[in-house]
């Protein structure tokens, strides 16, 4: 699991965070047993943070960039009201199928729409505004996702961006991915349209909201 916190502190935090329902514990186990890239799962602490933000902002319409096996989409869908909606995008057919099976098992599948294809194309086709946009896909497109999200966000909406610390490599960016994430962090910091906070939980989570839209 990606985290800067010592393992025993991470485990203590998980023990003192709301428990996951059985079907999501099963999804985590299945992802860990069958996928070499299982560390892409956002996990129980970030999943509960997402859920708490959905509840506290009374979000009704959510966009997720990066479904993977469906864990974060499902955490947010569970917290949406019955007339809420989450659109989640990915390019990977195989993981989208695993996600779809979990959504059907959850009892919340009617709130979730999966879009398969490059997220920038999907975002260009979307209409209306979103209360929460969670960005958790290919890092090279992060600034493009952020700018498209600003266009799609409601006036008091929230953009949540995962992996903004990128294992600490943002301190001394070397490869294309490091540079993309560090550039986005600087871009947001210099963006006078927004109020934002970088939370050093897990691999870094940025929260952004329009300040004068
Ligand atoms: C870190 S994982 C998402 C994890 C998920 N949010 C969770 O918490 O379980 C990133 C996902 O982004 C997807 N992805 C990569 N490039 C993409 C693109 N151009 N458009 C849409 N999805 C993309 C990958 O296939 C992968 O499933």
What's the topology here?
Elements: H1 7-15, H2 22-34, H3 43-57, E1 61-65, H4 71-79, E2 85-90, H5 93-106, E3 112-116, H6 119-125, E4 130-135, H7 142-152, E5 153-162, H8 176-189, E6 194-199, E7 205-210
Helix pairs in contact: 3-4, 6-7
Quick description:
With 213 residues, the chain is of the alpha/beta class. Helix content is 43%, strand content 21%.
Q: Would you give an account of this structure?
A:
- The protein has 213 residues and is of the alpha/beta class.
- The protein contains eight helices and seven strands.
- It has one domain (7-210): Rossmann fold (3-Layer(aba) Sandwich).
- It has a seven-stranded mixed sheet with strand order 3-2-1-4-5-7-6, sandwiched between helices.
- Strand 2, helix 5 and strand 3 (112-116) form a beta-alpha-beta unit.
- Helix 3 runs parallel beside helix 4 (71-79) and helix 6 packs parallel to helix 7 (142-152).
- It is globular, with a radius of gyration of 16 Å.
- The chain binds S-adenosylmethionine.
- S-adenosylmethionine binds next to helix 4 and strand 2.
- S-adenosylmethionine is lined by residues 40-42, 66, 68-69, 71-72, 89-92, 95, 118-119, 136-138.
